[in-house]
Write a structure and sequence with these properties.
The protein is an alpha/beta fold. It has two domains: 98 residues, 3-Layer(aba) Sandwich (Rossmann fold); 148 residues, Rossmann fold (3-Layer(aba) Sandwich). It is globular. Bound molecules: nicotinamide-adenine-dinucleotide (NAD). Nicotinamide-adenine-dinucleotide binds next to α5 and α9.
């Protein structure tokens, strides 16, 4: 019997703690990456919400798991149960990856790291430039803080005046107080301001859920006259692969990318934290049936 590749008594475990979580493609991605790298580790998804989170984190120590991914509704509350937080996790106020080093649990946030890595992979260098990001929720905050930490010069944030607007104001305060980047937030309904800020931006990002099911075919961008061919346009959404927002960018001739790169590279960053190794991005694109752009 050939037991090569089998789960044995030595196999290490990382978790994925969230609720709901069964739909996630993270375990398939991480397990393929472990296999490809010949690392004897597996990821399993666990239905964990805020009521069971503290016990679940204790289990990471008790079972000597290598760590875990964390998603909603646990990302913003899990920090209190950990021993240490990385600088970006502190500023973003969110943890999506836990690493267990001999019982010491450290929380990281790889969402923004993944976004920045996806840009770099595609040949886009945003350092020293001005960018505009629409959104002030979880994905947007991670992207904005990481962009500021990674050397973007100026970030204009737009959001509708909903419950997330205050979070956006807090992000602006944090960026301006803790980084050399200058940030400002504006009302997304103010189209004159939106046009002005996009006009001298190098990159425009959608970090809202508009365009994603059940909001397919919808975007906050009034029309294509706000875009120009030398603008880089990115969307966090990847289902559908082409949102209305990205279709408009394609129409104008912009370089554009969907959320596949961010999704893949946030996983690659977690993989590196657990294993010390680079995820094989080309192989993972094949496995996931996706193709990241190169400009
Ligand atoms: P969230 O709920 O934390 O934030 C939602 C954001 O959308 C807020 O800024 C909110 O104001 C805005 N919004 C909601 N309705 C709107 C409307 N009608 N008009 C304008 N803005 C509106 O969500 P999130 O976790 O930040 O996720 C946002 C999107 O990013 C989702 O589509 C999610 O799937 C995607 N995402 C992708 C990745 C990736 O790896 N590619 C990672 C995280 C999130």
């Amino acid at each position: 019997m050939d037991l090569k590749g089998s789960i044995t008594g030595y196999t290490e475990l990382v978790g994925l703690m969230a609720y709901p979580i069964r739909h996630s493609n993270s375990p398939a991605m991480q397990n393929e990456a472990f296999r490809a790298a010949g690392i004897d580790c597996i990821q399993l998804a666990f239905e964990v919400d805020n009521s069971t989170l503290e016990d679940a984190v204790k289990a990471i120590r008790a079972l000597r798991m290598r760590g875990s991914n964390v998603s909603m509704p646990n990302k913003t509350v899990v920090g209190q149960y950990l021993d240490k937080l990385s600088p970006e996790a502190v500023l973003i106020g969110s943890v999506n990856t836990i690493v267990n080093d001999n019982g010491i649990l450290t929380g990281y946030c790889t969402d923004g790291i993944g976004y920045m890595a996806a840009l770099k992979y595609s040949g886009i260098d945003v350092r020293g430039k001005k960018i505009t990001i629409v959104g002030a929720g979880g994905a947007a905050t991670a992207m904005q803080i990481q962009a500021a930490l990674d050397g973007v010069a100026e970030i204009s944030i737009f959001n509708v005046k909903d419950r997330f607007f205050e979070a956006g104001e807090e992000t602006v305060r944090k960026i301006n107080a803790n980084t050399s980047c200058h940030a400002a937030i504006f009302d997304l309904q103010d189209h004159a301001l939106l046009r002005r800020e996009i006009a001298d931006s190098f990159l425009l990002a959608n970090a809202t859920g508009l365009g994603m099911k059940p909001h397919e075919g919808v975007t906050w961008l009034p029309d294509v006259s706000y875009l120009r061919p030398d603008l880089v346009v990115t969307d966090t959404v990847y289902a559908p692969v082409m949102t209305r927002f990205l279709e408009m960018a394609r129409e104008v001739g912009c370089r554009y990318m969907n959320g596949h790169g961010m999704m893949l590279f946030q996983g690659a960053a977690a993989f590196k934290l657990w294993t010390g190794k680079e995820m094989d991005i080309e192989r993972m694109q094949q496995a996931l049936g996706i193709l990241l752009p190169h400009f």
